[in-house]
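Q: Predict the assembly, please.
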Amino acid sequence: MPQVLNQSYNQLVEKAQALFWVKGYKGVSTKELASCLDVSTSVIYNKYTKDMLFLDSIKYYTTTFSDPFLKQLRETSTGLNSLRNFFYMLIDALLDKTFPKSCLMVNTVVELRNTNHEIVKRYKSYFDSLESSYKVVLDKAISSGEIKYSDKKDIYAEFLLGIIFSMSILYKIHPKEALRAYIDEQLSFIE
Amino acid sequence: MRYKEYNTNNVLEKCIPIFWEKGFRGTSIQEIVEITGVNRFSLYHEFHNKEGILYNTLELYQERYGKRKFEILNKEGEIAVVLQEFYLSFLQCQEKYQGCFYIHIGTELADEDPKIKELIRTYLSSLEATLIKRLLKEKKTKSNPDFYARHLVGLFCTSMSFCLIHSEEKKEYHIANGIKVILNKTINHAASS
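A: Predicted assembly structure:
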């Protein structure tokens, strides 16, 4: 198949991911997907289906855009301040379009909800890893005495999980200073 | 005077489910023609383009559905209970479409469509104003209603997205947890200035 000869599957996924991120799953037609990947539509129908590319796009998103940030967050030793930096980095990425549109996981939750079993599994591992990373930071903040109410760890972790969702809407309508102030105040709830 | 052969609001009402289900990009004009029974020419004449149909659909949604839910916030009763009822009113399993149409469309389009961005901004400001009015009546929140309202709007955005994939119990837990964390916060004057 000459159309795919010079491209590895990973390269196709990378291009597909960029397209799905901006247009969502339903907003991308087979024709548009084929043209973005520079392959014929029969490749999408017969070889690398839209569903397959979408699932792998989510995987690519997680390993490329999310995991490195979370790893950095878990390894930090500055307690709650590292959460502040983490969310400030997210604001910058959203506003300078390193993240071209929101978070791909959040977009997918809103667009597809629980309609695809395979994607539901991805949500679970994504949000579990987010939550456990937050808990690593909360644990450090508890042992350094930065958090008074150590029994509220789970409550705080659940609250923190919501932030990427509210940010995913609020960045669209607020300027950087307001978003940073919002994060500062959100973190002030953890005491 | 010649009456139109269709009622504009009825046409828009039929567009809500299709935009909700397929998104704006995933919906073609042809599908709108089929679902509304109004021909392309009349649709363009009335709404200018597909975007125009969407803008008017959003406004109708707020008029017919959103406003009624916002009114829950004016109810008597303990504020945490009222807030919980308000958020959950968008997420009841008997609701045909769970979540909020504005958050749904805003997620898809607010980055590239300035008019959608403006509609989302107006919608969330109106929610914020309604919350402030309520928070002014509470002893704990009346001196800093803006602060609490800002974060309750944040919780609204979270609930209308994150909770879409939650079980009923998990939804209730996440929302109650958020309300509690926000309302439990005591602001001293140094922190609020």
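Residues 51 and 116 of chain A are 10 Å apart (CA to CA). Residues 54-188 of chain A form a domain with the Tetracycline Repressor; domain 2 fold (CATH 1.10.357).
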